[in-house]
Amino acid sequence: MIAESMPCHSGEPILDGQPRQAFRVSPEGITTSIKQQFVNKELALRELGQNAQDADATRVQVLFRYEDGHLILDFIDDGCGMSEEIILNNYLRLFNSTKDGVAKKVGKWSLGRLTLLCYEPEYIEVFTRAANAPAYRLVIEKNLSGRLYEIDTADAERLIGGPHGTLVRMCKKVEGPQAFADLVKAANLSIEKELCWIRPDISVTTVEFKDGELKFGSRRLNKPKLVPGRFSSRMAIRLGDTNAEVDCAIGLQNSESSALAPITLCCGGIPIERPSGLPWIDTGDEQKDFSLRGLHIVLDSFDFQTNIGRNVVYRDTPVMCELLPKIFHKIILERFVVPLARKMAQEHAHWMDYHDAIVQLMADVCIRSGLHDYAIPQEVCAAPFIPSFVSFRPYSLTEIDNSDGPVYYTWEKPSMLHMRELDGDGRGVICISLANMPWDFRQFLEKRYAERLLQKENNLLIDGESETELAALAAEVTERLERGCSFAHRISRSLAMGGMSLRATVGRLVHFDGTRETRLRTAWVKSPDRICLNHNNPHIQNLFRLLQGEDRTYAELAAHFLMREMLFEPGLKASMNMREQMLSNDLGNRFITATRAKGSVNAGQRDRLDEDFLEELFGGILEL
User: Which residue, among 359, 345, 372, 272, has the nearest Cα to 313 in the 3D structure?
Assistant: First the structure.
């Protein structure tokens, strides 16, 4: 039967409660407005789940079936149901919810049943019954016209599956079984994402279209409101000023939490917003959003206020103004980050799946300290989270702070070849690998270490160039190379015209782990351009010894071979023909100079001296 008290105008129900002759509500306008508020049509199912939770349901079933080219959705809950009075005075009136202002109730806009208009359905039916009360059927057509019927309680109990509850049915035309299966899959993904934390048990129909046949199943979707994984915690917060209750869950990002956003704001266990950051730290004139890499944060409270579309949590409410400034220091740093850093310093563990998230989190705590003006906890400074390019053991800020030498960094990933760490060699040179670090961690290092921070240009370091002994040796080498050899000046001038340098220095080539490099004889160094002779190389050491000896012939030969090592340094930009010509001219020039030094002799004596000199010369070359 049609309920006589149903408000109608011109034979149609009035959804806002009062008939008016001056205007008529446009169904198209309402539908358009609903679609604008709920861009993702699957969010309509979130509103139905929210209504079920507000009705104190313990069980929710989402059933799908395919009938004659139509998708039929049955959203069933065993909540308190609705009486005729609530249907007429609240359910059918916009913005007139019975839950407005009621504690621990999410809904207040009375829009739940209209959100299904996003699906553009053929019709919407609602079957409902309150405990020990009549049962009703409400039919809403596409043009929003409808009828209210009282139905047999036995029929209602069969449909609803119990003595009280509500069934919302939607019928939508689809283009075949595949389209039906795709819609069901999208709906189930949305339900799992948006309703997995609600209190009632929730199960859904699963559908697969395979070999031309629809195959149906069932799946339960409830999950605990926790960040999955080993490193997570959950705590209840009561705010002193507003007396609000907030449920907070924090955890490290890992393979199990990939579907979870870094920040999730919920109302009654239902996700409302997933912002990129929150204004947790007040920076004065400009308030910057705050977030931490590697971390999941879930905040849930019935005291959060939202917009009509349920996609924004307002930040300027008293609850949020009290919560956000406190949560970073009291919850995230003191209750989560500090204990994690302390554990990391004790165990020196990588923790496999969690290692990258821990490194990202600790690095971001350091980065944000400069942006939001807070002190880095000592436990974070002592935690070894900074990847080393030359060692399996990462650095801590405290270790780097206490070191005296330069701090090198590279964007390269460390490899087994770099990680020598030989017994007795210690840590060697500090070289940080930024390959898997936040991009702005380098800026933090620059601000902290200033001129000490240097970029690693290759896999070797040059040590000792400025030492008195090696600097004096470099000066002597330069003098010997040019002494009595005007061609050396011409070589230098020729190279300088091409933007190259033959300036020699002496240093010790070492790897970034502190071990000596003995194989390489020279190294090309920039700023300023120069060629460094490796004092760790035995051959170079032998040439230095001969160069400083009393035998003039061997000294000239040593000078020539040092010139050879410099001319054939790979970093020197000169053609091979040019290098060979320079080397040949240098040898000839030194040979003539050495011959003339024998003194004034007659022709026969000179021939004999030349033979002796050549024999000595090439004997020395062979020995070298």
Answer: 272
CA distance 3 to 84: 8
| Axis crossing angle, helix 552-567 with helix 468-482, rounded to the nearest 10 | 100
Which residue, of 319, 347, 375, is where some domain finishes?
347
Q: Beta strands 59-67 and 12-13: pairing type?
A: unpaired
Residue 562 and residue 503 share a domain = yes
| 288 in a structural domain | yes
Provide the number of structural domains found in the chain. 3
pLDDT at 107: 57
Do 332 and 189 fall within a single domain?
no
Reported as a single tens digit per residue, the pLDDT across 255-308 is 888 888 899 999 888 888 888 888 765 545 455 677 788 899 999 998 898 876
Contact at 8 Å (CB) between 514 and 428? yes
Query: Do 186 and 238 have their domain in common?
Result: no
Question: Which candidate, 551, 501, 546, places its Cα nearest to that of 526?
Answer: 501
Domain boundary among 302, 330, 347: 347
Residue 27 maps to which CATH number? 3.30.565.10
Look up residue 612 and give its two tokens.
């002796």
453 within some domain: no
Q: Looking at the structure, tell me whether residues 237 and 319 fall in a common domain.
A: yes
Give yes or no: residues 170 and 253 share one domain.
Answer: no
Select from 402, 408, 406 the least CA-distant residue to 388: 408
Q: Are residues 253 and 316 in the same domain?
A: yes
- CB within 8 A of 209, min separation 6: which ones? 177, 178, 180, 181, 215
The closest alpha carbon to 510, from 414, 449, 425, belongs to 425
In degrees and rounded to multiples of 5, residue 413 shows phi and psi of -85, 140
Look at residue 501 in the predicted model and tell me its pLDDT. 54
pLDDT in tens, 37-68: 666 778 888 888 988 998 899 999 999 999 99
Asked if residue 176 and residue 247 are part of one domain, the reply reads no
Which residue bears the tokens 């009938």? 67
Closest to 506 measured CA to CA, from 533, 467, 481, 526: 533
Select, from the ranges 283-297, 319-333, 357-371, 523-537, the one with the highest average predicted confidence (pLDDT).
357-371
Residues 34, 167 within the same domain: yes
288 lies in which domain range?
232-347
Q: For residue 88, tell me if it sits in a domain.
A: yes
pLDDT of residue 39: 64
How are beta strands 59-67 and 201-210 bridged, if at all? parallel
* Predicted local distance difference test score (pLDDT) of residue 513: 64
Q: Are strands 295-300 and 530-534 parallel, antiparallel or unpaired?
A: unpaired
The answer as to whether 414 is a domain residue is no
| Helix (H/G/I), strand (E/B), else coil: 576 | helix
Residue 493: predicted pLDDT = 55
- In whole angstroms, what is the distance from residue 110 CA to residue 442 CA? 52
Contact 195, 221 (CB under 8 A): yes
Give the whole-angstrom CA distance, residue 308 versus residue 553: 96
Radius of gyration, CA atoms only, the chain: 40
* 181 pLDDT more than 90: yes
